[in-house]
């Protein structure tokens, strides 16, 4: 990919914007799908959130200041869209976001697009018990293999705070897996 500043300039230039945005979609679609899928769990829901993410990115490109990397900015939008999706689903159902996450995990077992085994299902159940921030940090570090610096930019949190969140998440997951 070309230099990020040039790419951002192409995204903001009306003459090159459409082609640059298609390139952005091509390059970010798979990693964003994987990221969103770890949060919303369901394939169809992931596709919906991914589409909403790209719409938001396109609508807000003019507001991108370049204070963070484009990657971090797009991931932050995807993360926020995923959380918003879960909260809206919970609100529509008249239940808490924790209850909706439990339902999502139970539905995961019936999802034909999910190929996890029993230990993966236990991991998902353990993750659902974590506070939201610990969940996000663990999923980004463990599943996406993002660096703490990248997660820091995405979530707007210090690296030290992220390491502590990850440490606590791992301990809680280990405890859950040992008990179940």
Structural commentary:
The radius of gyration is 17 Å and the shape is globular. The mean pLDDT is 87. The protein has two domains: 95 residues, RNA polymerase sigma factor, region 2, helix turn helix motif (Rna Polymerase Sigma Factor, Chain: A, Orthogonal Bundle); 65 residues, Arc Repressor Mutant, subunit A. By secondary structure, it is mainly α. The N and C termini lie far apart (46 Å). It contains nine helices and no strands. This is RNA polymerase sigma70 factor.
Summarize the structure.
The protein has 9 helices and no strands. The chain is mainly alpha-helical and 180 residues long. It starts with a helix and ends with a helix.
CATH fold-level assignment of the largest domain: Rna Polymerase Sigma Factor, Chain: A
CATH class of the largest domain: Mainly Alpha
Structural category is mainly alpha
**Distance N to C terminus:** 46 Å
| Name of the CATH architecture of the largest domain | Orthogonal Bundle
Number of domain units: 2
- What's the number of helices? 9
Largest sheet properties: none
Share of residues in strands: under 5%
N-to-C SSE series?
Answer: HHHHHHHHH
State the helical fraction. over 70%
Shape: globular
Number of strands: 0
Overall average pLDDT? 87
Rounded to the nearest angstrom, the radius of gyration is 17 Å
Low-confidence stretches: none
CATH level-four homologous superfamily name of the largest domain = RNA polymerase sigma factor, region 2, helix turn helix motif
